[in-house]
Write a structure and sequence with these properties.
Number of strands: 2
CATH class: Mainly Alpha
Strand content: 5-15%
Structural class: alpha+beta
Shape: globular
Protein name: Transcriptional regulator, HxlR family
Largest sheet: 2 strands, antiparallel
Organism: Emticicia oligotrophica (strain DSM 17448 / CIP 109782 / MTCC 6937 / GPTSA100-15)
CATH architecture: Orthogonal Bundle
InterPro entries: HTH_HxlR, WH-like_DNA-bd_sf, WH_DNA-bd_sf
Keywords: DNA-binding, Transcription, Transcription regulation
Order of helices and strands: HHHHHEEHH
Strand order of the largest sheet: 1-2
Helix content: 55-70%
CATH superfamily: Winged helix-like DNA-binding domain superfamily/Winged helix DNA-binding domain
Amino acid sequence: MTAQTTENNCPAEGLLRMLSGKWKPQIFRLALDGPLRFNSLIRQISGSNKQSIAVALKEMEEQGLLEKTVIKLKPLHIEYNLSAKGLSLVSIFKELEHLS
């Protein structure tokens, strides 16, 4: 059995790989409650910094977990929401939380 086959058969393993990183699990958890804004994440995640949050958001967007939306109201701002792929992984994420 190849590593690819194992990953395809185990959604939890795939989720763990996508959420590996210092702030990604916290960002995913906060995204369950609704849209995220960058400065709000900096305030909510103790010990985080702008660069690490920016990198985590970018990676999660590239992985298809989050969608970035530019809100063109004044002041202009950006919100991050769980994508369809991210929403499909919520039940797995919650199961992993219950194991700890």
